[in-house]
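hey
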């Protein structure tokens, strides 16, 4: 589905993939965020995504005039997870409104894991160590 914006000059159609990419990039600018995570549905293990796959950690749902964004993230150990999540929500809302022209109705943050130490290990939400 696409988000349609209409003005005096015509229509602008913005795909979900574009919104996902912009949301992922703006989230990565926030302190305390290690990366985006995609949940592997086969065994429930969350995998840390690189810069080229940021949009796979983001899902966008467009229904009529409502836009909903869901981000799956991994945070740095020792950071205030609540503050990191709030910063991401504010940054993504601001970026989508001011750079893309889209008002977001809802942003959900799913913390999939916590990176510990030098970045070679992290703890995911189902209590398993994952070597990166």
């Amino acid at each position: 589905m696409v988000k349609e914006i209409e003005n005096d000059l015509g229509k602008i159609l913005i795909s979900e993939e574009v919104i996902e990419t912009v949301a992922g990039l703006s989230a990565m600018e926030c302190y305390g965020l290690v990366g985006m995570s995609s949940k592997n549905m086969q065994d429930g293990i969350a995998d840390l995504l690189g810069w080229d796959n940021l949009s796979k950690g983001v899902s966008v749902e467009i229904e009529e005039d409502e836009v909903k964004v869901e981000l799956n993230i991994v945070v740095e150990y020792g950071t205030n997870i609540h503050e990191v999540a709030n910063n991401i929500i504010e940054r993504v809302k601001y970026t989508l409104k001011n750079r893309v022209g889209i008002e977001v109705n809802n942003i959900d943050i799913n913390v999939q894991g916590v990176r510990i130490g030098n970045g070679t290990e992290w703890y995911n939400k189902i209590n398993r160590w994952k070597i990166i």
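DSSP finds two helices and nine strands in the chain. The domain at 2-131 is CATH 3.30.70.1350 (Alpha-Beta Plaits).
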